[in-house]
Design a protein that fits this description.
Order of helices and strands: EEEHEHEHEHEHEHEHHEH
CATH topology: TIM Barrel
Radius of gyration: 19 Å
CATH superfamily: Dihydropteroate synthase-like
Number of strands: 10
Number of helices: 9
Distance between the termini: 26 Å
Strand content: 15-25%
């Protein structure tokens, strides 16, 4: 004879809904979305400049949209450790052609620019870009936050200790989760003062963090839900995936997908990825798990 048992369910966090105004339209996502990475750079840590010509980027963008990306994140300067700091003009020259063609050919897709420079951000918004994704959280350009507030564009605020040139020299924290919570609380207060409401938070995996720091943050990601802002997770093919597995970025898709599921269970609203199809499938299976 079988008896019923009280089984405690597995805890799965509800992601923060994504609502924002951009380019005169209202957007709302009640389920996690996938952001595809478009690197218009010759020194990306993953593709190392492969497939970064305009026709190749356009083909990649169409592929990502077909696979289910809700937003495309265009980068004109690598932010990998020790990356070369290029001029503002060179960054603009790399991203402007792909912005112009995507606005025309994929008018319904959301576009994001990965930049810490306020002039690049302003030009991109004027050209039709919806989001600004700033790895420095406004720390590397004093005019960035005021610029975002002026245009009322959605803003991804990422935490980074140091700069891409120094961040991995010797990253140190007393309590990384507490320190990042304080960092974001201060930033959110500043955003409120500027009237900037559409903010997404990114703890900055790999940006001034050791592998141990990265896993502490991933394991504690749900702690950041108390800030009531959508959480973006960017772990795709990073060293926190491939170094523990003793492999490389090219072979890190399986590990990336495994960690994406953890991120979703911990409350991630956005997955920023190189591999859209696999991330979208991960979201679909997470939805099945949640509904069960």
């Amino acid at each position: 004879m079988y008896t019923s048992l009280d089984v405690e369910p597995v805890f799965i966090c509800n992601m923060e809904a994504i609502q924002f105004q951009a380019q005169g339209k209202h957007y709302e996502f009640k389920e996690p979305i996938v952001m595809g990475i478009l690197n218009a750079t010759p020194d990306s840590f993953y593709n190392k400049g492969r497939n970064n010509s305009l026709p190749q980027l356009l083909e990649q963008a169409h592929k990502m949209v077909m696979e289910g990306a809700a937003i495309l994140d265009i980068g004109g300067m690598s932010s990998r450790p020790n990356a070369t700091l290029i001029s503002e003009q060179e960054e603009m020259d790399r991203i402007q052609p792909i912005i112009d063609i995507l606005v025309k050919e994929l008018p319904s897709i959301l576009l994001s620019i990965d930049t810490f420079r306020s002039r690049i951000a302003a030009n991109a918004i004027q050209a039709g870009v919806h989001w600004i994704n700033d790895i420095s959280g406004g720390e590397m350009d004093d005019d960035m936050l005021e610029t975002i507030a002026k245009y009322k564009a959605p803003y991804v605020c990422m935490h980074m200790q140091g700069t891409p040139q120094t961040m991995q020299v010797f990253p140190t924290y007393q309590n990384i989760v507490q320190e990042l919570l304080i960092f974001f609380q201060i930033k959110i207060q500043r955003f409120q003062q500027l009237g900037l409401e559409d903010v997404i938070l990114d703890v900055g995996f790999g940006f001034g963090k050791t592998i141990a720091h990265n896993y502490t943050l991933l394991n504690s990601l749900d702690t950041f839900q108390q800030l009531h802002k959508p959480l973006l997770v960017g772990i795709s093919r990073k060293s926190m995936v491939y170094k523990p597995l003793k492999t490389n970025a090219e072979e890190a898709l399986n590990g990336t997908t495994a960690l994406h599921m953890i991120a979703l269970q911990k409350g991630a609203s956005i997955l920023r990825v190189h591999d859209v199809k696999e991330a979208v499938e991960c979201v679909e299976l997470w939805k099945m798990l949640r509904e069960a």
